[in-house]
Design a protein that fits this description.
binds ligand MTE, 3 domains, 24% strand, 31% helix, binds dioxothiomolybdenum(VI) ion, Aldehyde Oxidoreductase, domain 3, alpha+beta
């Protein structure tokens, strides 16, 4: 057998162009759809006019009154499929039209007029908070541990700051695209998406009380990063409604501009941190106030906020902690899931607070980190003990060696003394990512994975977890191949169709390998037991022979396993006490940067990182996740800026939304630490999001070193660097 850890099963079909994405599907009689959107950030819809002189015969048209249950089912159900009486953001869908040619749609759009009555807008967190209206707070969390007030009185110093982070766009390669195909009273939905069962549930709600049935298939997805987690439910509803009315297949395919302006983004944040600090730099108390800008509707804000709250501790030993988190409504497009889910915002804040403490005490940053560092046996402010799978110390050791951090500190500070034109910086960050859903979320989902052994001896893996470039299909094949000791050729991955695979939960929160991968291991063990084989002690041929004769006698073997947390894991949603996550993955990161004092451009020259992922299932793929995530985090830290003017996203494409390109990619040195998690497949825990989380703070730490000033906001665009030099506050 080939070394299975080097195989990537979707590589050849993607590189050769054979892979079929939604736009590649050959569908007869296809109609194309277009969304007519609000041009107001907040307004009452007075009336919608369809020009009487225009020939509407060959168009299918849907407005709010045609929608049976007009809410997208997800957490709070406050977002309509089509705006009815009011619009809450620029770009909100109001009318849907479908026709045979896209050109016809562009023409028809000119003949639809929407009359508005303007309402007062609230475009920033601050504006909303001054209104003091409870309805505008989509979610609120508070956590108290110990007595912060007392710690503040006793402490030598109070060190505080407000940190800000901006919107971030997912920039998946494939813009949103979905299609609905009617057949009798069933609508088959196919789309580029992360969570076929989210869409299935949303469609069940949408058509509740009607005859219409829906099934959902994920088609190979060209990147998602959270952007295809909640959003596809909205547009799948759109095509389903049109297809139902037209009784023809309908496709909605966004171009890049539409995708950038009207799909979900990462929540901007404003986080105030206040630390009570001893004169040796020990943090005796921490008060955190997290504000997330949710945009116009709730979407996934409560979960994004939960992760922000639980990530705000960083990797530090804390006591006397208060965290208050609020997700706030504004009249900008709704924000949603994005790799890290509130974690990158909160980790940036806590890491920059540590920088500020170091600057205030004139101590090296690393000394302050080390003094407050979390270690084995410590307890988090939630009460969760850190007592297994804690590879942070090894990550730190590895990254300090690979980066030669301490030597660089000296070298760069000498360089900067004589430099004219360029400042060099080196910075360090420590990051944690809770693996899987927050709290007892995984017990609510109760993920199921199924496997079937067929007559030919082939083994079929049935899960709802989707391939979006992160490599889950390959990871699952490796897990099953190893456990059953059978070759890749004998393993089949079932199509991600809701009528064929069970609900294994969504492909989010870096949960697929750890949670569902473990269910596959358990399924393998059930199969082995039926065949009277024990793991690893048989040859692939023995497996095949036993399987064939068993199936011949008894029919296909079907096994299922449902996830449940280990018994000791509990979490109280009200007090935020208990296990925030079943386990954490850890990373340590060092960035080397240069700042050009003519252009004020920051450039990342080298990046070193070590990740504790429990166990790698496929090393090459793990390194790929880390390289890519780091790069997306670097973009978040220095390049990616979305501008909103009067509620309208101004960015139109890659000319004005700058992401790192091949020329900006630094050399990324990756080390992997394997501190196994007892409840993951072969010890594996989460990996998908963590690489992004620690990257921006490492870069910001390096900028802070070079400029001898703490950083307060990202992205660190030339304008922000200029304002730091001029000691002015830069407004986005
Ligand atoms: N990697 C690629 N190539 N493409 C993606 O869309 N999404 C990220 C991460 N890595 C993503 C990716 C996000 S947001 C998550 S939650 C995880 O992959 C989900 O996959 P996993 O559960 O298999 O880790
Ligand atoms: Mo990832 S943001 O959890 O899809």
């Amino acid at each position: 057998m080939k070394n299975i850890s080097e195989i990537r099963i979707d590589a050849a079909s993607k590189i050769s162009g054979e892979e079929q994405y939604v736009r590649d599907l050959q569908i007869d009689d296809l109609l194309y759809a277009k969304t007519i959107r609000s041009t107001r950030a907040h307004a009452k819809i007075d009336s919608i006019h369809f020009d009487e002189d225009f020939n509407w015969e060959s168009f299918t048209i849907i407005t709010a009154k045609d929608v049976p249950n007009n809410y997208v089912a997800i957490i709070k159900n406050d977002m309509p499929y089509l705006a009815h009486e009011t619009v809450n953001y620029i770009g909100e869908p109001i009318v849907l039209i479908a026709a045979e040619k896209k050109q016809m749609l562009r023409e028809a759009e000119k003949h639809i007029a929407i009359i508005y009555e303007e309402l007062k807008t609230s475009l920033t967190i601050d504006e909303t908070l001054t209104k003091d209206d409870k309805k505008d707070i989509f979610a609120e969390i508070s956590l108290v541990d110990g007595d912060f007030e007392k710690a503040a009185v006793d402490a030598e110093y109070i060190i505080e700051e407000t940190y800000e982070t901006g919107l971030q766009e997912h920039v998946y390669i494939e813009p949103q695209c979905v299609v609905a195909i009617p057949e009798d009273n069933t609508i088959h939905i196919k789309g580029s998406m992360q969570c076929p069962y989210y869409v299935q549930n949303a469609m069940n709600e949408l058509f509740k009380g009607t005859e219409t049935k829906v099934d959902v298939t994920q088609i190979m997805t060209g990147g998602a990063f959270g952007g295809k987690e909640d959003f596809p439910s909205l547009i799948c509803g759109h095509v389903a409604l049109l297809a139902q009315k037209a009784q023809k297949p309908v496709m909605l395919s966004f171009d890049r501009e539409e995708d950038i302006r009207y799909t979900t983004k990462r929540h901007p944040s404003k986080i105030h941190m206040k630390a009570a600090v001893d004169n040796d730099g020990t943090i005796q108390g921490l008060n955190v106030d997290i504000l997330l800008d949710s945009g116009a509707y709730t979407t996934l804000s409560p979960v994004v906020l939960a992760r922000a709250v639980l990530t705000s501790f960083g990797c530090y030993r804390l006591q006397n902690v208060i965290v208050r988190g609020r997700a706030v409504k504004t009249n900008i497009p709704p924000c949603g899931a994005f790799r890290g889910f509130g974690g990158p915002q909160a980790l940036f804040a806590i890491e920059m607070l540590i920088e500020k403490i170091a600057h205030s005490l004139s101590e090296p940053v690393w000394d302050i980190k080390k003094r407050n560092l979390l270690s084995m046996g410590d307890v988090l402010p939630t009460g969760q003990p850190i007592d297994y799978s804690f590879g942070l110390p090894q990550c730190i050791e590895k990254v300090l060696i690979s980066s030669k951090y301490f030597e660089k500190l000296k070298e760069f500070s000498d360089y900067n003394k004589n430099s004219n034109g360029i400042l060099k910086g080196v910075g360090i960050s420590l990051a944690a990512h809770g693996a899987g859903f927050t709290g007892v979320g995984e017990n609510t989902i109760q993920a199921i994975a199924e496997m079937e052994v067929l007559t030919e001896g082939k083994v079929v893996i049935k899960t709802a977890n989707t391939e979006m470039g992160q490599g889950v299909d390959t990871a699952y094949k490796i897990i099953v191949s190893k456990r059953l000791n059978i070759p890749f050729e004998d393993i089949v991955i079932e199509e991600k169709n809701t009528s064929k695979v069970p609900n294994s939960g969504p492909t989010v929160a870096s949960r697929s390998t750890m949670i569902v991968g473990k269910l596959l291991v358990d399924n393998c063990d059930k199969i082995l037991e039926k065949l009277d084989l024990s793991a690893r002690e048989h040859t692939p041929d023995e497996f095949k022979q036993k399987a064939l004769s068993f199936v011949e006698k008894n029919g296909n073997i079907v096994v299922r396993t449902q996830y449940k947390h280990p018994d000791f894991i509990s979490f109280d949603e009200k007090t935020y006490k208990g296990y925030g996550y079943p386990v954490y993955s850890w990373s340590a990161n060092v960035a080397e940067i240069e700042i050009d004092l003519t252009s004020y451009q920051v450039e990342v020259k080298k990046f070193y990182t070590a990740h504790d992922v429990g166990k790698t299932i496929n090393r090459q793929q793990s390194e790929g996740q880390i390289q890519g995530g780091v790069l997306q985090g670097i973009g978040y830290g220095i390049y990616e800026e979305m501008r909103i003017k009067d509620g309208e996203i101004e960015n139109r494409g890659f000319r004005d939304y700058i992401i790192p390109t091949i020329k900006d990619i630094p050399k990324v040195h990756v080390d992997i630490v394997e501190d196994e998690y007892f409840n993951g497949p072969f010890g594996a825990k989460a990996l998908g999001e963590l690489p992004l989380v620690g990257a921006a703070p490492a870069v910001a730490s390096a900028v802070s070193f070079a400029m001898k000033k703490p950083v307060k906001k990202i992205p660190l665009t030339p304008e922000v660097i200029a304002s730091m030099i001029e000691e002015k506050d830069y407004e986005y």
